[in-house]
Amino acid sequence: MSIKPALAPALPPALAQAIRVMVACCVTFALVQAFGLPQGAWAIFTVLIVMQGSLGATAGAARDRLIATVAGALTGGIILLTLPHHPIALAATLVLAIGVLNVTAGKHAYLRAAPLTAAVVVLTHVTTMPVGVFVLDRILEITLGGVVGVLASRFILPVPSKGVMIDQLGGVLKTMAELLNTEADALEQRKAVVPAEALISMRNAMVAADGMLKDAQREKAMGLVSEGVSDAIPRTLWRIRNGITHVGGLLDQPLAEEAMAFVGPAATGMLRSMAQLAQACARGLTEGAEISPQPEDQAAMAFDAAFTALQQSDHAREMPFDSVGRVFGLAFALRKLHQDFQDLAARIAESRVG
After folding, report:
1. In contact, 118 and 74? CB cutoff 8 Å
2. Does the keyword Hydrolase apply (predicted)?
3. N or C: which end of the chain has fewer CB within 10 A?
4. Beta carbons within 10 angstroms of residue 67's beta carbon
5. pLDDT score at 354
């Protein structure tokens, strides 16, 4: 059984999102007309603002929008109630309030829309409507748009954040496999490793996956999905990413010939076996396939034997200090990577069972 949740039908993401947004806007417009909201356009604007590519992201945007609206609308309402309706007094107070709200928004990102809401309340208020009613209508309109947006994301071609995160992590694992094979080729051919672009791309993908993890956890916390998400797999992948970077740094220059004679083939084999395990983990994560770490275990044992032979040989004592340090560093990094990959395979298996 795959740990990947069922996703929306096989539609292009942009088309699926367009369908969700169009339906949400139609429903919101109908509700605005039914309730007779005087500024119902803001409910539709909210739908367009909060609807994101996944359920968790939409829920987070709707929550932030509502909090900011309440803060901004109350601020604007207080200004209208406490100050004389003189243009200069209103302008000065509004500028001051917007400044304070912007400072607050700089510390709390979810309040970024509060200054805009305060300005809209002050500048669009009509004297024929009581301030309290105007502020309440504003909050209700934003709430309506947010609720419709979240419900549309939940029930119309839903895309749970967990599925998006798993796809992202599957791509990260495939990139890791490519990097490990690149490092194995460089070690075997005694060439320098320069994987800077791939490492940057992998890091960016990991950061994006972390964002998806937060969205997935938000979905669970808000009761939008029944299945929770653990951060164990992303956390382990960060360790593996750091380990691959460490190995690449050690291979920025070819190893000494004496070291290559003893540990070169075994280290190359270990890197290639970890690349195969990374691909197996990607399939296990995205497709629910079984993961067998046995070949990687055998490669690790072969490397340990080769490294022990080097340690006990006279060549180790005759090698320059820098060369010895790099070989020992490589041994430490490969063993740590081996442990992290074993941990990753176990975490994926646990998630699949769960």
Report:
1. no
2. no
3. N
4. 15
5. 52
Predicted TM-score (pTM) of the model is: 0.73
Do both 68 and 102 map to the same domain?
yes
Q: What was the pLDDT predicted at 252? A: 84
Do 178 and 314 reside in the same domain of the chain? yes
Is there a single domain that holds both residue 147 and residue 189? no
- pLDDT at residue 242, as a whole number: 93
Spell out, as residue ranges, where the chain has pLDDT lower than 70: 1-10, 195, 228-229, 352-354
> Do 111 and 206 sit in the same domain of this protein?
no
Domain end position, chosen among 155, 170, 198: 155
pLDDT of residue 18: 94
Identify which of 129, 121, 111, 128 has the alpha carbon closest to the alpha carbon of residue 42: 121
Give the three-class secondary structure for 278. Answer: helix
Q: Establish if 292 belongs to a structural domain.
A: yes
* The one-letter amino acid at 45: F
4 in a domain, yes or no?
no
> Does residue 165 share a domain with residue 141?
no
pLDDT at residue number 2: 41
Q: Please say whether the beta carbons of 181 and 278 come within 8 A.
A: no
CA dist., res. 253 & res. 171, Å (int): 28
Residue that is written with structure tokens 């992303």 in the block? 234
Tell me the residue range of the domain where 19 lies: 13-155
Phi/psi of residue 160, nearest 5 degrees: -60, 145
Digit-coded pLDDT (tens) for 274-316: 999 999 999 998 888 888 877 788 888 998 898 888 888 877 7
CA atoms within 13 A on the CB side of 185: 10
**Residue 258: inside a domain:** yes
> What is d(CA 56, CA 149) in angstroms, rounded to the nearest whole number?
11
**CA–CA dist 117, 335 (Å, integer):** 55
